[in-house]
Design a protein that fits this description.
CATH superfamily of the largest domain: Glutaredoxin
CATH topology of the largest domain: Glutaredoxin
Bound molecules: FE2/S2 (inorganic) cluster
Order of helices and strands: HHHHHEHHEEEH
CATH architecture of the largest domain: 3-Layer(aba) Sandwich
Helix content: 40-55%
Number of helices: 8
Structural class: alpha+beta
Length: 168
């Protein structure tokens, strides 16, 4: 018998820790207009809104699941797939396109082993392609976490992400 495979198949599912969600819900229960701020705060903690979280929020706020799911899917600020700790946004607006942002996006995707919209295996990054972020004067632009890198070359973008630390 292959014990390694056997272990793999019988791993217990990791239970979702709802402690943080419940603390947030406790601040908003019974208040009008609670849904959006609850979703924002819960997402800020968990990084994305899994189906069990959405169901829990609906149940606790006593709102139809269809309504909560509708809000989550309508607003682009809410994520329904796992997100990395940091988001890398590669601007694909016209000015950045002209200055080579497609090659930056392609090279970052290859280096990180993901497609745009996906999270890296280690959970550190989600790579995103975005429209003009209003910094055309320093095109091409990428934003990683809270840091903006302007007039960046492909090589410098790769180096910036390989060495990325939010506080550094
Ligand atoms: S097109 Fe990239 S910042 Fe405007």
């Amino acid at each position: 018998m292959d014990t390694e495979n056997n272990k793999e198949c019988c791993k217990p599912e990791i239970a979702l820790d709802l402690t943080a969600a419940n603390k947030i819900l406790d601040q908003y229960r019974g208040k009008p207009g609670a849904l959006i701020p609850v979703l924002q705060k819960v997402q800020a903690h968990y990084l994305w809104l899994s189906q069990p979280l959405v169901e829990h929020i609906a149940r606790e706020l006593n709102i139809f699941l269809s309504e909560v799911s509708g809000v989550v899917t309508f607003y682009s600020q809410f994520y329904t797939a796992p997100r990395g700790k940091y988001t890398i946004q590669v601007c694909r607006g016209t000015a950045c396109h002209v200055k080579g942002s497609l090659r930056i996006l392609e090279q970052l995707a290859a280096d990180l082993g993901v497609e745009p919209g996906e999270m890296t295996k280690d959970g550190k990054f989600t790579l995103e392609e975005v429209n003009c972020i209003g910094a055309c004067g320093i095109a091409p632009v990428i934003v990683a976490g809270s840091k903006t890198f302007g007039s960046i070359s492909v090589a410098d973008a790769l180096e910036a992400i390989r060495n990325f630390e939010e506080g550094a």
